[in-house]
Amino acid sequence: MLTRPDPSDRNGAVQLLKDFIAEHAFAPGDRLPAERELIGRLGVTRSNLRKALDALEREGAIWRHVGKGTFVAEQGDGREDGLDLSLLAEIGHQITPVKMMRARQCIEAVIAREAAINASRQAVKKITEIKDRAKAAETWQDYEAQDDLFHHAIAEATDNILLLTLFEQLNKVRRAVAVNTVIRETVRPPESHTSFAEHDRICAAIAARDPKAAHDAMWQHISSVSARLFGEV
């Protein structure tokens, strides 16, 4: 008979959390329940739960965003590849949101260009499906999770492990930058949400194998997001 991990032990709490994620078939991009609910369902203390969440984040199994929640990561999303994760976190605490968006603009525009050159049919299909899921999202949290997967899928479509790794490390810094000052006036993104049309243009350019259009569409998209959130371009 299998013995249930000890919830009062840190390692036991880590295993309980891993088992919970597996048993409920959480997929990459899915948001985990709030801490209060996890404490009740796992039977762990708040302290041990947070230690378990820290451990899974270091392993790359989950990622957390201030004000948005905890999400299941893409397989391999958190691999360290010899990089110091504490350094990435420190960068996240030092950089301003506007400078972070400028870095995204420079790097992701080039990534979109390379995706237009190298994306397979399957990669284009994946990008399109995620784009459509983002547009159909019922909540801002769901939209933001799909938006994250959309950008990750474009990086994967470059078929360039170095560009994908650069994107993933940039994404870790982005997640460490608190942008939870944004006030949402609706439960879900409205139909007029500008990112929908911007995502359409990026996807269309990649599907059309048009590197310049893909680069420009991504540049404009991130510029638009930055202006909407921070009043900066």
TrEMBL record:
InterPro entries recorded: GntR_C, TF_FadR/GntR_C, Tscrpt_reg_HTH_GntR, WH-like_DNA-bd_sf, WH_DNA-bd_sf
Swiss-Prot/TrEMBL keywords: DNA-binding, Transcription, Transcription regulation
PANTHER family, alphabetized: TRANSCRIPTIONAL REGULATOR, GNTR FAMILY (PTHR43537), UXU OPERON TRANSCRIPTIONAL REGULATOR (PTHR43537:SF5)
Record-given protein name: FadR family transcriptional regulator
Residue stretches spanning the membrane: none
GO molecular function, a single term: DNA-binding transcription factor activity
Domain HTH gntR-type: from-to ranges: 7-75
